[in-house]
Write a structure and sequence with these properties.
Layout: H1 2-18, E1 52-55, E2 61-64, H2 67-77, E3 83-87, E4 94-96, E5 101-104, E6 116-119, H3 122-132, E7 135-138, H4 139-145
Antiparallel strand pairs: 1-2, 1-3, 3-4, 5-6, 5-7
Amino acid sequence: MMDRRLFVLGGVPFLLTACGEKSSANEPPKIAYGKDLCARCRMIISEERFAGGLVESDGDALLFDDPGELVTQVQEEGLNGRRVWVHDYMTKEWIDGTQAYFVVDDGLMTPMGTGVVALKTREEAERLAAEKGGQVMTWQEIVQNWKIGARMS
C-alpha cells in the first residue's frame, strides 16, 4: 500500500508538467476554443477572429474573448513585460498587437460589445472603418485614448 501511494504521489508532478503546454512570449498563446475562458469576463472563448492574449516571458498567458477587454486590461495594469497577441479580424491570423491597427465602432458586434477589432494593415483597417463609419487607432492610440463604452456589460 505504501509503495502504491509513493508511486501515485511521485507521478503527480510528472503528470502536471505534461499538461498545459506553454509557449514562449514570441509565440501566440494556445487557445482551446469552446473551452478556455476569458481572463476578464470569464466567458468561453469561441470566436477566433476576436481572441487575443497577453503572454509572459515564461509562456503563461491571459486569454481574452474580445480585443476591447484586452486593451482595458492593459490600460489598468500596463504591459509589465508581456507580449500582446491579437487575431486579424479578416484573416484570423495571429499578429503582434502592438503592430496592429484597431477599428473602433459601435456597429461592430464583438463578443463583449466593445466594438473593437484588430487588423494587420492600415489599409484594411481604413477600409473597414470607412464601411462601418468607425475610427482607426494604432496600439499606442487605443491604449492611451480609448475608453470602454457603456455597451460593455
